[in-house]
Amino acid sequence: MLKPDGWALIMVPITAERTFEDPSVTDPKERERRFGQDNHVRRYGRDFVGRLQETGFDVRVFGVSDVARGAVAVAMDYTGQRQTPVDNYGWFVREGAADSIAQTPGVQIGKQAGEPYPYAPSGKAPEVERYVASMKKFSPKSGDTNSLENVWTQNFWSGARLVVDAIAAQADAVTWNGVNTWVGRQKNWASGIQAPIKSLDPKCKATGDVWNFQWKVVNGQYQHSDWQPYGGRIVIPKEVKDFMMPGAGDCYLTAMADAELR
Fold first, then answer.
1. Which domain covers residue 50, as residue numbers?
2. pLDDT at 63 over 80
3. Is 66 a residue whose pLDDT tops 70?
4. Which of 44, 61, 78 is the last residue of a domain?
5. Which residue of 92, 157, 185, 203 shows the fewest CB atoms closer than 10 Å?
6. pLDDT tens digits, 155-169
């Protein structure tokens, strides 16, 4: 819902030439097969802009060159080549005949488990075994390799780990205020399976690193490579942050959230 003269930043995965939908599909597995997720009822296509215009919206389309340049533009697929999701793992930023470059903050499980994780001397996520064991025990439906490598599964597990750490840090009674205060003071907090979160300060939240990695095409199928960084860590230039929220700098995510709340 928008107020008069309000605006919205609308982003959806474009995974088809034309949008197709079927609200009558209710089986979670069938939804995942047809629409990519078990809570989705459609796949958006390249007609997405037209669909918005038909409902009365004045639509402005921003391209990569409008918000980024240099390495970030490459990571965002400035070349115009199509982006394709790889199962649940990450999103391609470039697709070639023999390999692709995927952008994801998650670690690998099925092969070279716990990598990439450049934040530990071993190069391996220190909590990967605990993550796998706990997911298989408490959420067996999410215990397969695809689910365990899903960035959202890793995000949710990391969030639960944050709450556990916050509760453990309480000296006496556990209260919401105590938990929230502890969380808000964390700098470079690490779940042990994802990049450390730079800041959880309510006034300036700052996320962890995101990396580009290489995927190989073997017999027409995408397979994990050795996960050596391809192009390194993605750095968002200051001008891009200022474009999204003028003057917010590294606190642009908090500023965006505050603007939405108002």
1. 1-61
2. no
3. no
4. 61
5. 203
6. 899 999 999 999 999
Average pLDDT over residues 95-110: 66
Q: For residue 69, how far is the Cα from the chain centroid? A: 21
Name the residue type at position 74: V
Pair 48, 75 in one domain:
no
Phi, psi (rounded to 5 degrees) for 224:
-60, 140
Report if pTM > 0.70: no
Instruction: Tell me the pLDDT tens digit for each residue of 185-203.
Output: 999 999 999 889 889 998 8
- In sequence order, the 6+-apart residues with CB closer than 8 A to the CB of 84 are 15, 91, 92, 95, 100
- The pLDDT score that the predictor gives to residue 262 is 45
Element (H, E) at 180: helix 176-184
Q: Are 102 and 93 in contact (CB under 8 A)?
A: yes
| Residue that the structure tokens 């391209």 belong to | 63
Split into its structural domains, the chain has a count of: 2
Q: Whose structure tokens read 């639960």?
A: 160
113 and 53 housed in the same domain: no
The verdict on 104 and 176 lying in the same domain is: yes
Contact 240, 254 (CB under 8 A): no
Query: What are the backbone dihedrals phi and psi of residue 163, each rounded to the nearest 5 degrees, phi first?
Result: -65, -40
* Residue of 39, 37, 38, 36 whose CA lies nearest to 15: 36
Candidates 128, 126, 91; CA nearest to 111 is 128
φ and ψ of 133, to 5 deg: -65, -45
Task: Provide the residue type at 176 as one letter.
Answer: W
Interatomic CA distance for residues 106 and 52, integer angstroms: 33
Do residues 201 and 129 both lie within one domain? yes
